[in-house]
Amino acid sequence: MPSVFIKTYGCQMNERDSEAVAAQLVAKGYSLAKSESAADVVLLNTCSVRDLAEQKAINKMKNLVGTARSEKREQIVGFMGCMAQSRGQELIDKLPDVDLVLGTQKFHRAAEYLDELLAGTRKKIVDTAAEAKSEAAIREHLVNGSAKTSVSAFVSIMQGCNQHCTFCIVPATRGEERSRTIPDIVAECRELVSRGVKEITLLGQIVTSFGKRDIPALDGKSAFVQLLAAVHEIEGLERIRFTSPHPKGYGDDLVEAYARLPKLCESAHIPLQSGSDRILKLMHRGYTREKFLGIIQKLRAAKPNIGIYTDIIVGFPGETEEDFEQTLSLCREVQFDNAYIFKYSERRDTPAATMPDQLPQSVREERNERLLNLVNEIAAKKYDSFIGQQVQILVEGPSKKNAARYTGRTRCNRIVLFDGSVRHQGQLMDVKIERTGSFTLYGDPAVVNL
Ligand code: 5AD
């Protein structure tokens, strides 16, 4: 039986797509290889959100092909996902050893294409065409395939994004918004729970726009909030999360859902992108600084311990020192639990790439560093505030770095390490936080159980 190794770049949606492709291949008789060099097939699941992510995958492919050739190994290699979708045939023109380019609406065809390539009935396959209903075609899960997935699972609820932020390549890589139906999603979640899953993260590029065109609001509740309520009813499911939302989706119905639905965890990853109204407008984000602050206030009023995370882009075209200072001041005001900072990267065919006043790399770097210092300082204070607190964690499994330690997450999405054993896996348990490390909390269950 042929073996396959999938390496994933980018977001949680990509992780989910890789897992679904792996599960599909396993169902068709493939095995999962332990390493790239031991695999008959290597697939790179790619990210296009910044140039750096694309370069990483291209360099990886060059290395793979070079190593296989020098070791005289036959290996089928392919790109899948976002860069495969946006570059298509160009990837094979550039790297002629690549056998397969599989777009974001074609994951469910992976086994069929690999069978053909392995049998030699086709030499090269590029498929980036749109396919109706592909959003519902990714269903297989590898539950129990790894310790982590048996406790916590991702479920894709929609594909694509119609927001068209001027910096963003996602509408080109994932297409127009298409949502699955609520019963279809609930059935998948139920199945996962029956296989031991306790926590589900609902995924999409803009989850708060879920079902907007197809499912009318009901008693003032958006389609997305209706979905949360439907998933919440599943017996045996303990926790619900979702990512990524858009700030404009945080209506009162969603804020109220945090208060009403106890399984909905107190954590939100709400992308800010900039603290300057002028830049937010150029980005086509559809909200102001004040509106964003209002959302945070409402969420904290509903759930004082909510963990609030964000994404910020520095060095967008035309961003002045004053604009950047608005971002700094907003971060001071909000006190994010953590923020992911990105240096603006020109993406092909996006409006921002041709805007005037593209900033020099040195300015992007300098602002990145200044913002990072501020964000880290705030994040460290937030981490320290956990010391001495008792928190509930869901135990995922042994820590990757040290198998004697077990890892779990708080409801507000912090990682907690503790001295555990296999009997803790999948348990909801209380621990007392004793100390902090870099982006980690260390807990002691014994202190709670005394
Ligand atoms: N340049 C830099 N960062 C970007 N992001 C999206 N597009 C770009 C770009 N062109 C960031 C945004 C988004 C995160 C996933 O990636 O902050 O929220």
| Broad shape | globular
Biggest sheet, strands in spatial order? 2-1-3-4-5-6
Measured distance between first and last alpha carbons: 52 Å
Parts with pLDDT < 50 across at least 5 consecutive residues: none
Overall description:
- Helix 9 packs parallel to helix 11.
- It is globular, with a radius of gyration of 22 Å.
- The chain is of the alpha/beta class and 450 residues long.
- The model has no long low-confidence stretch (mean pLDDT 95).
- The protein has a six-stranded parallel β-sheet, with helices on both faces. A five-stranded mixed barrel has the order 15-16-17-19-18. The protein has a three-stranded parallel β-sheet with strand order 7-10-11, sandwiched between helices.
- Strand 3, helix 2 and strand 4 form a beta-alpha-beta unit.
- The longest helix has 24 residues.
- The protein is built from 14 helices and 19 strands.
- The structure holds 5'-deoxyadenosine.
- 5'-deoxyadenosine (5AD) binds next to strand 13.
